[in-house]
């Protein structure tokens, strides 16, 4: 297998090598170890062969020639429509530390767990008919390092941060495209949700600057997509007004209440295998659904009627030896797989991605920002506020968008090529609660059609 070394330092020293390598690879019948040998045709828990192309693998990333090395794990699913022409999405799940598998099976991928009571056997998988892979190629990426099946190879690589995440994602994508030259001309979008609202705009800017500097391979970057995105420190300011506006609290409490954040305001309070960093400090407390007090706890399986019940099935599946073998996971690379790993030493170097949105708008990139309108973790009011602060003129004013002749949400478009949409009845995150509507929304937008 060809080995490619690449380090992003703002210069063009490797341009000639990369250009030559791309030309050679495109003009030969070179077979990559990251393609055919990494194809997954069967998965434990799923009946029969997979009806779509799934590839899994690792790509090594480094900051500099003498700095840390890590192996970044990915799941790649080809578009079920027209892989050669359809866009390529690089997807980051939130957290930080929530696995790419979580985005794949709980949000926008073609597989999902059958949400049955756990009986000790391997959880079963089924097809999801409203996968975004119906119209796009998607790379689901385990970042930051330590997330999912990604792992550090040196002590210094254990320590992670916002900027390491950004650089690693950028380097990963250029290396991945070298290994998959047939996708070099596809339109590329960077996407994610929740906490990914912080790093995704920075990643887009980083890739754009790399293109401007002549870094190879050139990436056909078109824009970005964010769902229920954390964006500014003022996010918290909108939780109480949102709660008041949704009649969750009284006028009297409105002045004094401290918020308890829920992924969907109509859902029962349930235990979660992950307390979101947006919600409370890491590794701290859980909410007792009986009396709403806070207590330290080892997690137990929530009732079947809880939205979070299905989350608890994923570790039983991902930690199975046969599953790891099918996914080509390297033995001894990680210990216990976690859906959301909050033990990663992670430094939040920025908690405000607003300046990057402003810069990307000036550079003309398209963007789709969407919010479940029943999400209290990142209320749509907060998202509306920072979008309004961009001060771009409105092209298509606030109106309904429809699915099956019913109002599916509301939307507005701006002169900076940004579309903001709410998803009626959606929580945190919207595709988990409204998969059909979110696929329709994404399909229309990615095809440059009105919502």
Automatic annotation (TrEMBL):
The keyword Glycoprotein appears for this protein: yes
One Pfam family per UniProt: Peptidase_S10
GO cellular component, one term: extracellular region
Keyword Signal recorded: yes
UniProt keyword annotations, A-Z: Carboxypeptidase, Disulfide bond, Glycoprotein, Hydrolase, Protease, Secreted, Signal
GO process annotations (BP): proteolysis; secondary metabolic process
Cellular location(s): Secreted
Domain of life: Eukaryota
GO molecular function, one term: serine-type carboxypeptidase activity
Family: Belongs to the peptidase S10 family.
The protein's name in its UniProt record: Uncharacterized protein
Organism: Trifolium subterraneum
């Amino acid at each position: 297998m060809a080995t490619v070394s690449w380090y992003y330092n703002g210069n063009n020293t490797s341009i000639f090598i990369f250009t030559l390598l791309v030309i050679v690879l495109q003009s030969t019948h070179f077979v990559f170890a990251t393609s055919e040998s990494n194809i997954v045709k069967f998965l434990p828990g799923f009946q029969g062969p997979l009806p779509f192309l799934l590839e899994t693998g690792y790509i090594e990333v480094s900051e500099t020639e003498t700095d840390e090395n890590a192996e970044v794990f990915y799941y790649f699913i080809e578009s079920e429509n027209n892989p050669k022409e359809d866009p390529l999405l690089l997807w980051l799940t939130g957290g930080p530390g929530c696995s790419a598998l979580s985005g794949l099976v709980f949000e926008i991928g073609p597989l999902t767990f059958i949400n049955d009571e756990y009986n000790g056997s391997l959880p079963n998988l089924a097809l999801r008919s409203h996968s975004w892979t119906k119209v796009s190629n998607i790379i689901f990426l385990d970042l930051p390092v330590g997330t999912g099946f990604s792992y550090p190879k040196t002590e210094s690589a254990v320590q992670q941060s916002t900027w390491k995440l950004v650089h690693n994602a950028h380097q990963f994508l250029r290396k991945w495209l070298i290994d998959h030259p047939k996708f070099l001309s596809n339109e590329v979008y960077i996407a994610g949700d929740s906490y990914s609202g912080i790093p995704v705009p920075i990643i887009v800017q980083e890739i754009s600057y790399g293109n401007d500097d002549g870094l190879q391979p050139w990436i056909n970057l078109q824009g970005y997509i964010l769902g229920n995105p954390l964006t500014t420190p003022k996010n918290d300011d909108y939780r109480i007004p949102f709660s008041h506006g949704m009649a969750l609290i009284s006028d009297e409490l409105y002045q004094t209440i401290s918020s308890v954040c829920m992924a969907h305001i109509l859902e029962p309070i349930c235990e979660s295998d992950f307390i979101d960093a947006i919600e409370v400090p890491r590794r701290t407390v859980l909410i007792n659904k009986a009396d709403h007090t806070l207590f330290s706890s080892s997690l137990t399986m929530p009732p079947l009627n809880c939205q979070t019940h299905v989350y608890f099935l994923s570790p039983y599946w991902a930690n199975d030896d046969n599953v790891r073998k099918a996914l080509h996971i390297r033995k001894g690379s990680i210990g216990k797989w976690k859906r959301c790993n909050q033990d990663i030493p992670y430094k939040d170097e920025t908690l405000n991605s607003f300046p990057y949105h402003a810069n990307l708008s000036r550079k003309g990139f398209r963007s789709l920002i969407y919010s479940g309108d029943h999400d209290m973790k990142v209320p749509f009011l907060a998202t509306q506020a920072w979008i309004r602060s961009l001060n771009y003129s409105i092209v298509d004013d606030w109106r309904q968008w429809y699915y099956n002749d019913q109002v599916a949400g509301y939307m507005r478009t701006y002169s900076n090529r940004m579309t903001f949409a709410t998803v009626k009845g959606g929580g945190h995150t919207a595709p988990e609660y409204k998969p059909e509507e979110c696929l329709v929304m994404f399909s229309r937008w990615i095809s440059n059609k009105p919502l």
